[in-house]
Design a protein that fits this description.
- It is a single chain.
- With about 280 residues, the protein is α/β, with parallel strands linked by helices.
- Helices cover about 45% and strands about 20% of the residues.
- The strands form 3 sheets. Strands 1-2-3-4-7-8-9-12 form an 8-stranded parallel barrel, surrounded by 6 helices. A two-stranded antiparallel ribbon has the order 5-6.
- Helix 7 runs parallel beside helix 8.
- The radius of gyration is 18 Å and the shape is globular.
- The model has no long low-confidence stretch (mean pLDDT about 95).
Length: about 280
């Protein structure tokens, strides 16, 4: 089955998934929730993968950090990838540990040439361990570094090209950062190479008045749907996952949001095909 649109696995739905399974275009599992573990979580994942393609999405690789990437982490990640036959493995353009202390957060990186070289070397290390390309996601941010020499999209593109890795383009994060930092979200999308984009994320955010906060606790906002349309227009069809982490609704409601992504994509592609006809 070729990966298409789908949802992320959440514990709130585990009982239903164990009983009924899940047949969708793609299911995304948080790597750390299943690495080195058995029991109910792994049983859910293995039940789901009988009917749907699975991908792994990590939150603690700390690809931009200075702490060494633990060999045991990479070993367990590679073992899980093989066990569930994950189509690909992703993580984030971020760091999350300092001197061995994990923050359990995704801190943004300074966009400098030095950081590009550092991240590229670590991506290549991970890819060697996995035996496949790593997929990296752009993160939401609320501060900028005075030392940055590149735009965010220039940084993302440089790492992807030099490391020969792929991108998980979070459309909501592009919109959140564009509002928070005052750049053109469409220019961000247009600057990325289509051939590097393996997956998309859509999620909800919170308007705090002074800034937008990427909380994954609401339906996808209308401006993000509009940006998703532009993304499909520029880059074509890409497997898309709906993320919902706070105030998680019923499985049926999350699936409705995923179905909307499919409908939007189909509408954009149909319009493009109509325009191309003589």
């Amino acid at each position: 089955m070729q990966p298409r649109h789908g949802i992320g696995l959440r514990t709130q739905h585990f009982a239903q998934l164990l009983a009924e399974g899940l047949s969708v275009g793609l299911v995304e599992a948080i790597s750390e929730n299943f690495m080195g573990r058995g029991g109910r979580p792994l049983a859910v994942l293995e039940r789901v993968r009988r009917d749907s393609p699975v991908v792994l999405h990590g939150v603690s690789l700390s690809i931009g950090g200075l702490d060494p990437i633990p060999d045991e982490y990479l070993r367990q990640l590679a073992e899980l990838r093989r066990r569930v036959d994950a189509a690909w493995v992703s993580d984030h353009f971020s760091f999350g540990s300092v001197r061995g202390h994990a923050s359990h957060d995704l801190w943004p990186l300074p966009f400098t040439e030095e950081t590009v070289r550092h991240v590229v070397a670590r991506v290549q290390q991970v890819q060697d361990a996995l035996g496949q390309r790593l997929v990296l996601e752009n993160v939401s941010s609320y501060v900028e570094y005075a030392s940055s020499e590149l735009t965010e999209w220039e940084f993302v593109r440089e790492v992807a090209e030099r490391a020969d890795c792929e991108l998980l383009l979070d459309v909501n994060n592009v919109y959140v950062n564009a509002v928070n930092h005052g750049f053109d979200a469409k220019a961000y999308l247009a600057a990325l190479p289509s051939r590097r984009i393996r997956q998309l994320h859509l999620a909800g955010h919170l308007d705090c008045g002074t800034h937008l906060f990427d909380h994954h606790g609401a339906p996808v906002a209308d401006p993000v749907w509009a940006l998703y349309r532009e993304c499909v227009r520029l880059h074509g069809p890409v497997p898309t996952i709906i993320e919902w982490d706070e105030d998680v609704p019923s499985l049926e409601r999350v699936l409705e949001e995923s179905a909307r992504a499919g409908a939007v994509e189909a509408e954009v592609l149909a319009g493009a095909a109509a325009e191309a006809r003589p």
